[in-house]
Design goal:
mainly alpha
């Protein structure tokens, strides 16, 4: 599955949305992994991140060394993600933080976004496994299973 409506992929609006949503999913995945206990939300997050990632080509990066934003976590990351969704939001964000055009453009870099998407998807998969992965209960068989394979309800 590919990210977003096909009609916007490759358009300025689609690129803004891809940047904003990738940053927002990256920034909020840590909260979701620690505080939300829904298998379907974990699956949706991972699917959205993988869909975004499929649209990114890290090899297209032409940024100078050290140009990628260093920290888009916490409240700042939410501010960045929301700001990147619209042209007006970008303008206000750039003015507020005194960013030049090339500094603002670094948020759209496909290598930068791919790194965020990969990291967030890995965190979501890891958290899902920690919360919902297979639990070994074989040690309980001797205590709660009867010789005929039935469950000893009294012992349970």
């Amino acid at each position: 599955m590919r990210w977003g409506p096909c009609s916007r992929i490759g358009t300025p609006q689609g690129r803004r949305e891809r940047t904003g949503y990738t940053i927002l999913l990256h920034t909020t995945c840590w909260y979701v992994a620690a505080r939300v206990f829904s298998k379907s939300l974990f699956a949706s997050y991972t699917q959205a991140l993988e869909g975004l990632r499929a649209t990114l080509d890290p090899a297209s990066c032409t940024c100078p060394a050290g140009a990628h934003p260093a920290d888009v976590d916490d409240e700042y990351g939410v501010e960045v993600g929301v700001s990147m969704l619209s042209e007006a939001g970008r303008a206000v964000f750039a003015e507020e933080y005194g960013l030049e055009d090339e500094e603002l453009a670094a948020f759209d870099c496909e290598a930068f976004l791919a790194g965020l998407a990969d990291g967030a998807a890995a965190r979501m998969r890891e958290a899902r496994e920690e919360l919902f992965g297979s639990v070994d209960v074989s040690h309980l068989d001797a205590r709660f299973l009867q010789e005929d394979g039935g469950i000893d309800i009294v012992a349970v």
